[in-house]
Design goal:
By secondary structure, the protein is of the alpha/beta class. The chain has 14 helices and 21 strands. Strands 1, 2, 3, 4, 5, 6 and 16 form a 7-stranded mixed beta sheet that branches. A 5-stranded antiparallel beta sheet has the order 17-18-21-20-19, with helices on both faces. Strand 9, helix 8 and strand 10 form a beta-alpha-beta unit. Helix 3 packs antiparallel against helix 4. The mean pLDDT is about 95.
């Protein structure tokens, strides 16, 4: 089949954030584009089951927590009783608004929007579930992720909630066992705990939030324990079973058998690429055998030259702003392959919306050591910082990593109040390739949370001579 005979220049399979970014980019560059999406609702994980609903619920829990702690500031509030139905209703209203707007964008005429599922017949043809076929010169696969299957077979018989289920519970559980220690697990665990559910968190690894340095995990664990959460780390799951009162999890902890019981079990042990049924292996697209991710080069191109991928189905960073950047890069490379756009991992930012929040950009200490990058580091705690003391935010710290010769900022970590906002100061500094000497000279208003970055910057600026840069 000749190129001129194909239905579209580009077909995108998946209408989430990565797929929409690829579609709007390619359409703006003059390509004929179609988006194929088989979900009952549009918007992808971020809008429907991820970023927006979880952060809406977490903010409701934060307001509840602040109201309960109001006496710290000399304010007397007699009772604080969150209304579960109203909290969920507000979340649903916001998600409906976000999803409706995305549906309008997908149907605004810039490209063809097709509600169907697709499977590859060959590198230029997909079969639709409605029995039709579509052809294109290029494809972008942006099918996102799905909840991973449980690691314990007994969980299937016992019954469990997924992170998707947890966002739509009609009634608040009295008690909950959360399996997992990643961002989704700790965020939802804190939400339920603050709303009044007694939470027990069981993590297989030795630390929570294993993607971050151990000091981050210690601060978050201390904060969660201070709110009454029971936490077990370094465990090995053995069994699960129903009980009269609910459900039980059995595990090994510190060499001893343990059992915990709750009304519900929330299985928050991660997500997997959603690629089943696409027949990617049938057309020669390589898949990582361990993770299931679609393998791509820096241009977001798979092992089949005309097929690209973006978002959670390829990773390795399952965050929406990366999915958007990948979708844009894929579309730009399809339209202008001579320019070769790629993703700059140097500025990768990760945020966990617990309280305290976690923000990380650039290198962690662990990564710098593993890559044998010479660095200096300095930290400063929030419990000795004026504005955070005013706010009664006692957990957390900021940390800077800098090149030990030039002083260029290599990374930053913030565990503390609005850490997800504060970390962007370091992302901007790194984007401009600032040194700690330059950051130390930036005036910061007092008293603000942001001025805390001045202290590690000043310490490192004293240690590292500017002449070495």
């Amino acid at each position: 089949m000749n190129k001129t005979q194909r239905d579209y220049d580009l077909i995108i399979v998946g209408g989430g954030s990565g797929g929409y970014a690829a579609a709007r980019t390619a359409a703006s560059l003059g390509k004929g584009v179609a988006v194929v999406e088989n979900g009952k609702r549009v918007g992808g994980l971020c809008i429907l089951r991820g970023c927006m609903p979880t952060k809406t619920l977490l903010y409701a829990a934060e307001v509840t927590h602040l109201a309960r702690e109001a006496s710290v500031w000399g304010i007397n509030i007699l009772t604080v009783e969150p209304d579960w139905e109203k909290v969920m209703a507000r979340k649903n209203q916001l998600i409906d608004e976000f999803a409706s707007y995305r549906e309008q964008q997908l149907n605004d005429g810039r490209f063809t929007f097709i509600r169907d599922s697709a499977s590859f017949l060959d590198p230029h043809t997909v079969q639709l579930a409605s029995n039709g076929t579509l052809t294109a010169e290029h494809f972008v696969v942006a099918t996102g992720s799905q909840v991973s299957p449980p690691p314990l077979p007994a969980l299937a018989n016992t019954g469990y909630l997924t992170s998707d289920d947890a966002l739509n519970l009609p009634r608040q559980p009295s008690s909950l066992i959360v399996l997992g220690g990643g961002a989704v697990a700790v965020e939802l665990a804190q939400f339920f705990q603050r709303m009044g559910t007694q939470v027990t968190l069981v993590q297989r690894g030795s630390n929570l939030l294993k993607e971050f340095d151990p000091e981050v995990a210690k601060e978050i664990e201390a904060a969660l324990r201070a709110e009454g959460m029971e936490i077990y780390t370094g465990t090995r799951l053995i069994d699960a079973c129903p009980t009269r009162a609910g459900k039980q999890i059995r595990f090994i902890h510190e060499g001893k058998p343990c059992a915990v019981e709750a009304e519900h079990i929330l299985m928050a042990l991660g997500r997997s690429p959603n690629t089943s049924g696409l027949n990617l292996d049938g057309i020669g697209v390589d898949i990582d055998t361990r993770s299931g991710r679609i393998l791509c080069n820096q241009a977001m191109q798979t092992t089949v030259p005309n097929v690209y991928a973006a978002g959670d189905c390829t990773g390795p960073h399952d965050v929406v702003h990366v999915a958007i950047a990948q979708g844009e890069a894929a579309a730009e490379n399809i339209c202008h392959p001579e320019l070769r756009h790629s993703i700059d991992d140097r500025l990768l930012t990760s945020i966990v919306f617990t309280d305290p929040q976690v923000g990380q950009t650039g290198l962690t200490e662990r990564e710098a050591k593993s890559r044998r990058i010479p660095y200096r580091t300095a930290s400063y705690p929030f419990n000795d910082h004026g504005k955070s003391m005013i706010m009664n935010s006692q957990f957390g710290f900021v940390r800077l990593l800098a090149d030990e010769r030039s002083g260029e900022i290599l990374g930053g970590t913030c565990v503390g109040p609005v850490g997800g906002e504060l970390i962007h100061e370091i992302t901007v500094a790194m984007s401009a390739r600032m040194t700690v000497h330059q950051l130390a000279k930036v005036p910061h208003y007092h008293p603000t949370l942001a001025e805390i970055w001045s202290y590690p910057a000043e310490e490192l600026a004293e240690e590292i001579s500017e002449s070495k840069g």
